[in-house]
TrEMBL record:
GO molecular function: metal ion binding
InterPro entries found in the cross-reference section: Amicyanin/Pseudoazurin, BlueCu_1, BlueCu_1_BS, Cupredoxin, Halocyanin, TAT_signal
Protein name (Swiss-Prot/TrEMBL): Halocyanin domain-containing protein
PROSITE patterns per record: COPPER_BLUE, PROKAR_LIPOPROTEIN, TAT
Native organism: Halospeciosus flavus
GO cellular component, one term: membrane
Spans annotated as Disordered: 35-67
Record carries keyword Electron transport: yes
Amino acid sequence: MTTNRLDRRAVLKATGATLLAGALAGCTGGNADSGGGGSGGSGGDDEPFDYVSDANGYDGSPTDATGKSAVTVDVGSNNGYAFGPAALKISPGTTVTWKWTGQGGSHNVVAEDGSFESSYSAEAGYTFEHTFESVGVYDYYCAPHESMGMKGVVQVVE
Ligand SMILES: [Cu+2]
C-alpha cells in the first residue's frame, strides 16, 4: 500500500513537470513569424474548460447554474487563492456576482478578453458583478495570483 502511494506521487510529479514543459513551449511558440493569429484562437467549444485545468479548486467538472438569473462566485475560496466555483456554466442574461471572502489578501477579477475587470480588494464582502449576454467561453483570472492557479471560467450556453 505504501508503495502504491509513492508511485502515485511520482506520477503526479511527472505530470506536473510535463504541464510546466508544455506551458513553456507554448510561450516560445508565439515567436513564429507567420503573421497571423493563433489557429487555436481562444479555445474550441470542445474543451471550454482547458483554461482551468490547472486552476485551484477545479475538480474536473463545471458547476451547472444554467437557467438561473443570478449566481455568486467566491473570490478567495479554498486556500484563499481560488475562485469558487472555478468553472461555471450559465445561460445568457445571467448576472454573476463575485464576492470576496477576505481570504488570501488582495484579489481582482480580470477577463482574458477584456470584457470585464474589477478593482482590487482584500475586504470580505466586497462584490463585483457582470451580466453575460452572449454565448461563449469567458476565461478570467486574478492578476496577482494567476501564476498560482487563481483562474476561472464562465461558459454561457443556450
Ligand atoms: Cu487573487
